[in-house]
Description:
The chain is mainly alpha-helical. The chain has helices at 8-30, 40-52, 54-67, 71-95, 103-127, 132-144, 146-163, 169-196, 202-229. Helices cover 81% and strands 0% of the residues.
Amino acid sequence: MAIFSIDPSTLFLALTGSIIPAIIWLFFWIREDDEHPEPRVIIIIAFIAGILSVIPTFLLEDLANKFIKNQQDLYTAWAIIEELMKFSAAFLVALSTRFNNEPMDAIIYMIVVALGFAATENFLFMAGSGNFVTGFLTGSMRFVGATLLHTLASAMIGISMAISFGKKMITKIVCLALGISTAVLLHTSFNIFIIKDNGNDISSVFISLWMAIILLLVFFEKLKLEDIYS
Length: 230
C-alpha cells in the first residue's frame, strides 16, 4: 500500500482513529496496576514492540496464505502467528526483564503489546479503506471488535503467567501453553465468526467480547485483593 497516495483526510483519520483509541485503552489498563505501576519507559518500549511485531506477522501470514489452502486452517494459522508474535515481542522487551516482578505485570505487558499491535493493524485497515467515510466506519468497528480481541487474547497469555507466578518451571510452561492455546482458540473463533460468517452474527460476538472484558477486570480486582492481604 502506497501511504503517500492516500487521501489526506483518510490518512489523518487512520492515524488519529488508530492511535488515540489505543492510547485511551492503554491508560485505562495501566491504571489497573496503579498500586505498583510498571516503569513508563518499559510500557512505551512494549507498545513500540507491539507496533513492530506487525512486520514479521505480516510476512509470516503472507507465507501462510501461499501454502495453506483450507480456509479454516488458514484462520487458525493467522491466530497462531499473531499470538506468538505478540508474546515474543512482550517477552523480549518486558517479560524477560527484572521489571516483571509481580503476577499482574505479565498481564499488563501483554495488553500493552497487544494495543500497539492493534493500533498498527487498525491504521493499515483504515488507511486502505479508500475514503473518509469507509475509514471512519472501519475504525469504529475495529475499535469495538479487533482491538478488544487482541487485548483479550493477549491477556489470556498474561493471566496464565500470573497464575503460575512463583511456581515451578514445569508449572509455568504448562500454564503458558494453556494460555497461548486459549488465546489462539479465542482469536480463531473471532476470525471464523467475523470473516467466514460475513459479520452476520457480529452483535453476539461483540457482546461476548465485552463480557470477557468484564471478567478480565474482575480478575484484576482479585489480584489486587490478594496483593493487599498477602
